[in-house]
Write a structure and sequence with these properties.
Recoverin, domain 1, metal-binding, 7 helices, EF_Hand_1_Ca_BS, repeat
């Protein structure tokens, strides 16, 4: 869920001021919900807005001060980046997983490596898979592939 994006402290302050509709120096769940709809086009329920506020509300007053708001924005940016990275990994996994089995087999790995100009034999491919095959089934699941790509 996108909350907003602010690269600098000045942008964060300006964004906070935009979301602080009543100008009291705090953002309520209702203000957050309204601004997410009007400025970002993102519909959130009262409950979701309340959960977003609660997720960073350090003092427990049910409102966001500027520092708490900045933490919310930063968390949203990290989440968005993780989603983008996950989508890219899913696409890469799909390139290697060519047999429709939902996993990368030694054969599918070999085929893709050949397309990329690397001539590995099937035993080399088995060894590559074995290194990250956490459950020992001889193939790489998407989760194992993610671990391999982040290693």
């Amino acid at each position: 869920m996108v909350v907003a994006s602010a690269a600098s402290p000045c942008e964060s302050s300006a964004l906070f001021a935009t979301f602080d509709h009543d100008g009291d120096g705090r953002i309520s769940a209702a203000e957050l919900r309204l601004c997410m709809k009007t400025t970002l086009g993102e519909e959130v329920s009262d409950e979701e807005a309340g959960q977003l506020v609660a997720s960073v509300d350090a003092d427990g007053d049910g409102l966001l001060c500027e520092a708490e708001f900045v933490r919310l924005v930063q968390a949203a940016e990290v989440e968005e980046e993780d989603e983008r990275r996950g989508t890219g990994l899913r696409e890469a996994f799909g390139m290697y997983e060519m047999e429709g089995e939902g996993c990368i087999t030694p054969t599918s790995l070999r085929r893709m490596l050949r397309r990329l100009g690397s001539d590995q034999d099937i035993d080399d491919c088995r060894a590559m898979i074995c290194r990250f095959d956490l459950n020992g089934d001889g193939v790489l699941s998407f989760d194992e592939f993610k671990i391999m790509m982040n290693a």
